[in-house]
Fold this protein.
Amino acid sequence: MHIDLLYFKGCPSWQQGLNNLRSALEAEGLTADINLILVADDEQAARLKFLGSPSFRSDGKDWWLDERDSYGLSCRVYITPQGMRGVPTVEMLREQVVVHHQGFK
């Protein structure tokens, strides 16, 4: 399984997102190649259709897709059981890992 984690340098949440992703994989007993993608500028953000940092993708598809007219360097927020947060919970990531892992079987 291959997972892209997109982030920008000034994001205060991407490392917690990476930690939560690793915890989710471990909880599911799965391994994955995690590719960290540093989004450097608004041009690259537009080209990648970057939805904010951190973003999680498999096969180029965002795990929480959100259609937009413009893209740029920004922090991303997720709706969690605890309210709006800068990262998805481990449980939210576990659900996505399971869904996206099934495509690799």
Summary: The chain is about 35% helix and 25% strand. The longest strand covers residues 2-7. The chain has a mean pLDDT of 94. The chain has one domain: 2-102.
